Structure formats: C-alpha cells, structure tokens
Amino acid sequence: MAFVVHAPGTAFEGFVRAAAAAAAEGEPSMGQVLDVAARNGIELLGTVPTTAVPA
C-alpha cells in the first residue's frame, strides 16, 4: 500500500511526460526511468514487488 502526494504536481507531470516519451521508443530500462525521475526532482525508493506480500 502507498499514499503518495505530489504538490505541486509539476514535477510529476514532467516525469510522466518524459517517461511516456521514453516508452514510445520501446520499454525503458530501470536506469532510464531513474534518470527521468531524477531530472524531474523525483526520488524513487525501490522497485515495485513482483509478488503480493501476505497480509
């Protein structure tokens, strides 16, 4: 579970637009995603788990 707030939303908008542009050229690598995030002032703390965590 995550609770995320983007205020102001301009950094997130820049990230989404740049990530979409990268994805239009093919599946981006995690390195590319981390670079796009950093250029937009966003720090990603980890990858999304591939399996569900038991409650």
Instruction: Estimate the mean pLDDT confidence.
Output: 84
Model regions low in confidence, pLDDT < 50 over at least 5 residues: none
Radius of gyration, in Å, reads: 13 Å
Secondary-structure element string: HH
Count the DSSP helices. Answer: 2
Helix proportion of residues, in percent? 40-55%
**What does the overall shape look like?**
globular
Structural class of the helices, strands and pairings? mainly alpha
The major beta sheet can be summarized as: none
Total E-strand runs: 0
Terminal Cα separation, in Å?
11 Å
Strand residue content: under 5%
Structural key phrases:
single chain, 55 residues, mainly alpha, 2 helices
Overview of this protein structure:
By secondary structure, this protein is mostly helical. It is about 45% helix and about 0% strand. The protein is built from two helices and no strands. Helix 1 packs antiparallel against helix 2 (about 30-40). The longest helix has 14 residues, at about 10-25.
